Amino acid sequence: MTVLPPKPPARPDKVSLWRYVKLFRQDILSAQPAKLYRAWMAEFRTPFFRSFMVNDPKVLNRVLKEQPDDFPKSSRVSEGLRPLLGDSVFLTNGDVWKRQRRIIDPAFEGGRLRDTFPAMWEAAESAVSRLETGVTEIEEVTSFAAADVIFRTLFSIPIEDEIASEVFSEFRDYQRSQPIVNIAAFLPMPRWMPRFFRRRTRETAKTIRGLIRRLTQARAAEIAAGTAPDDLATKIMTTVDPETGEKFSPEEMIDQVAIFFLAGHETSASALAWTLYLLALYPEWQDRLAEEAEQLEACDFAVMSKLKLSRDVFREALRLYPPVPMMVREAGCPVEFRERHVAKGSQIVLSPWHLHRHERIWERPDEFDPERWKTESGRQCAREAYMPFSAGPRVCTGAGFAMVEGPLLLSMLLKAFRFELIEGREPVPVAHLTVRAKDGIWLKVGRR
Ligand code: HEM
Question: Ligand 1, residues 65, 255, 396: which to mutate, most atoms within 8 A of Cβ?
């Protein structure tokens, strides 16, 4: 019998609005009905606005690629993140967003990834040397490792650095108090309703921004003195927008660093933790990856082209457990989707979580099968119904970065260690800031 990776229980198709609100507060994923894994589109009505969850690849294409300017990011979602992220590229829209991407994108181009690689390699080596054998909570391990990658690539400092470790621990507090898909995006809550997490979230956000300010100020001084290291922060702070001739102001840079840190480490940590869990569930795949990892010798970017299995496994983990489970856009003008009227101001929910497990699109959608990427049907699904990094002009800036980081860290860890399941501790996926396990992911770590 095929072993299926864990999926949260979907709610029955009919529940009262009150029960839905309760379920939603507990966990967004299990609050959704099972029929959404089969539907092309679903409508949720509230007294204040309408939400449409969209799984039809043609409609997704329209929202993300053909008319992205007509579907800006929903302000209902960004509201909760603004105290921390200010006007970061993750939240802005229109011309401000376009200008920000023109400055940021060059730092993440293919060629720059090669320059960033040694810092990732060092972070991976540190993760291996830190890991101890025995029963271990893996999300903790991968969060630390992914944060280390970000600090080393962005600011050339390891996670052990005093400011870096403080930022890391403050972010953990923040994560616990703030779900990424703000409840207000779906539910009938007027905007003025007080949110219970407001004060604590604001305080943590202020502390984090103060710490980041110290890093960016120090870097600005090094750039002025000509002593700055050639890392992502220097690249972004010195890039001039070709259209306006402007650079980021110091305050804007704080916004961008906050999102790089948040989007960059939470997501990769979630993806790596679920991949390690899947490999514990399928030990034959773990052995194949460990064998492939024998090719990792010296720090050389060219080795990435040899880690093919690791890449396929990582992609499959991103399909089953997309770290960003849902994204929300707003209809900037009235439109028709699948012959249904969508009024201006409606919320459009794009759900990698449902799309990646859609029963009418994928073959054996709930099965872990990294070989699927080699088949014609798998390739077609990858083009039409796979968007762990979103798609179109607003695609994740760090997608290429993450697809190097993930397979590299995975291979380094598997070369040295074996990961085994612990009976009775099956993780249940829930949506926090990213898709995490309800009580953590516990595995037994042994030396290989
Ligand atoms: C496995 C790892 C990652 C996943 C699954 C992921 C996923 C995503 C997704 C789905 C979005 C779009 C969100 C939306 O439109 O609402 C996004 C945006 C973004 N990501 Fe990632 N991400 C990952 C890693 C990274 C890394 C490593 C960085 C930077 C170092 C990064 C930086 C960003 C930024 C700046 C945006 C905002 C882009 C924009 O709105 O223009 N991400 N990411």
Answer: 396
Q: How many CB atoms lie within 10 A of CB 175?
A: 18
The residue among 351, 331, 426 whose CA lies nearest residue 180 is 351
Distance CA 370, CA 259 (A): 30
Q: Coil, strand, or helix at residue 446?
A: strand
Kindly state if the Cβ of 401 falls inside 6 Å of ligand 1: yes
Tell me what pLDDT residue 194 has: 43
Structure tokens at 211: 């710490």
Q: What is the DSSP string of 238-294?
A: HPPPTTT-----HHHHHHHHHHHHHHHHHHHHHHHHHHHHHHHH-HHHHHHHHHHHT
Closest atom of ligand 1 to CA, residue 154: 30
Report the pLDDT averaged over residues 15-39: 76
Residue with tokens 């870097």: 219
Q: Which atom of ligand 1 is nearest to the CA of 405?
A: 27
Q: The tokens of 89 are what?
A: 């590229």
Say which residues have a Cβ less than 8 Å from residue 61's Cβ, sequence separation at least 6.
391
pLDDT in tens, 71-99: 999 877 777 778 889 999 999 999 999 99
Instruction: Extract the tokens encoding 398.
Output: 């760090």
Ligand 1 pocket member 441 (CB < 6 A): no
CA distances from residue 122 to 119, 146, 279, 388 in whole angstroms, order as listed: 5, 12, 23, 26
Domain positions in the chain: 17-447
Is residue 408 predicted with pLDDT exceeding 90? Answer: yes
Decide whether any atom of ligand 1 lies within 6 Å of the 87 Cβ: no
**CA–CA distance, 263 with 90 (Å, rounded to integer):** 9
Burial class (CB in 10 A: 0-12, 13-18, 19+), 196: exposed
Locate the DSSP E strands across 105-219: 134-137
**Residue 15's pLDDT is what?**
67
- Going by CATH, does the domain composed of 17-447 fall within 1.20.1250.20? no
